[in-house]
Write a structure and sequence with these properties.
Length: 417
């Protein structure tokens, strides 16, 4: 279900801009141009995920609308053209998501960032570490306004226990001065177990000693905030660091994902398969490695064009994911795919591969006004002892044999000692 965004704005031009921003992020947008219209909208009990709030409306000139929206449990971003410090302090004294001055077009770009992250921050886990209950509660509250999933710890020792229980935590905000294990020691411990690509660390300190920033950064932190900090700066640092992590994840995904099928690519397969095979060999667990090739794929491209060929490849990827949910599948290049199965008997794995081959043969693929019929050939190595590269080479030999001897079949090959 689309999340609902309430836009409280008396300027039709600005309301349209925010509406377009909301729609681009797949929000269902409702606009209120006055306090009276806002009251009418909220009287019917409609639930809104978030709101953008103009500070001054024709019938509510002094920010009354902010308190009204927040009273309805709607997280709000305040936007205003009033730049004086008194107004700013008045706004930030309330539990708003953020405050954005309407200075230029960058204000709306920043609003788009906030609304984007507000939708997905609940998937991001953050750990707050501080021996002061008041400080912990303040930072946790600021993060919860931004919809983060928040954990707390009172010192470094407890923090490491939380990280062990929740290894998917993406950010740690830690104070410097703590008993048992301080922020610098905690940062060191985290970096022994988690890389910068896995967790980002923000150090916090109220100490006047100027080198604390450098100490945190040199010991593995990504950023630093000095207490007392203003919510605006806090949110800017949080957003920037979360975006950095997201960008790294995008780069890594691009490096390890096939662009067409979104399956793991050759690099990812080699990395993941080696770990799986090592684990199987260590625990005397049956496994098999299969190389798969689409028969006469050039004919598919020649008959249906490259769009048709791409359709076959993408459908093959979906079939592989569906049929081998517990296995590792990848596109190694062209029309060649790899399958790694484990944890079942040799007979069960052989049956799974044969059922898949039969399914492909029996399932014509609808394409435009036609149907594309195709088959696959597979070469398989069972419980190989050689290196991963050698096992793939051996499975390739089986694949070559299958294709040279009629295609649409599976050839199991024994390793040569």
């Amino acid at each position: 279900m689309r999340k609902k965004l309430l836009v409280v704005e008396d300027s039709k031009a600005i309301a349209r801009v925010i509406q377009q921003i909301g729609k681009s992020l797949d929000y269902d947008v409702t606009i209120a141009e006055s306090m009276a219209q806002l009251e009418s909208i909220l009287e019917d009990g409609t639930s809104f995920f978030a709101a953008t709030i103009d500070y001054s409306l024709p019938d509510a000139k002094n920010g009354e609308v902010i308190e009204y929206v927040l009273a309805h449990k709607i997280p709000g971003v305040v936007m205003t053209g009033m730049m004086d410090d008194d107004t700013r302090q008045k706004i930030l004294a309330q539990p708003v998501i953020d405050y954005i001055p309407k200075e230029n077009s960058q204000a709306y770009m920043y609003l788009k960032r906030i609304l984007h992250w507000q939708k997905i921050n609940n998937e991001i886990e953050v750990l707050v570490v501080d021996d002061s209950r008041t400080a912990r509660a303040l930072i946790a509250d600021l993060l919860e306004r931004r919809n983060f999933n928040v954990y707390v710890a009172e010192d470094g020792i407890e923090a490491m226990k939380v990280l062990e229980q929740h290894p998917t935590i993406k950010m740690v905000v830690t104070d410097l001065e703590m008993p048992n294990m301080d922020g610098i020691e905690l940062t060191n411990e985290i970096r022994r177990k988690f890389t910068r690509e896995q967790i980002t660390i923000i150090g916090v300190s109220g100490a006047t000693y100027g080198a604390n920033t450098a100490r945190f950064i040199k010991n593995g932190a990504d950023d630093f905030l000095r207490k007392p900090f203003c919510p605006e700066e806090f949110y800017c640092r949080i957003t920037q660091n979360i975006e950095n992590l997201a960008n790294i994840e995008k780069i890594q995904k691009a490096a390890y994902t096939d662009y067409l099928t979104e399956l793991p690519n050759r690099r990812a397969f080699f990395q993941q398969a080696q770990d799986i095979i090592t684990d199987c060999q260590r625990n005397n667990m049956d496994y098999c490695l299969a190389m798969l090739d689409i028969d006469f794929f050039k004919k598919v491209n020649d008959t249906y064009g490259h769009d048709g060929g791409d359709h076959v490849l993408k459908t093959m990827a979906l079939y592989l994911i569906k049929h081998f949910e517990s296995g590792l599948v990848a596109r190694l290049g062209g029309e060649e795919f790899a399958i790694l199965l484990k944890g079942e008997s040799q007979e069960a794995m052989a049956n799974a591969l044969e059922n898949f081959r039969q399914t492909i043969e029996d399932t014509p693929l609808p394409y435009e006004k036609d149907e594309i019929k195709f088959t696959i050939s597979l070469g398989v190595v069972v419980n190989g002892k050689a290196s991963l590269e050698q096992q793939i080479s051996t499975a390739d030999e089986g694949l070559y044999f299958a294709k040279e001897n009629g295609r649409n079949q599976i050839k199991v090959v024994d390793e040569v000692n």
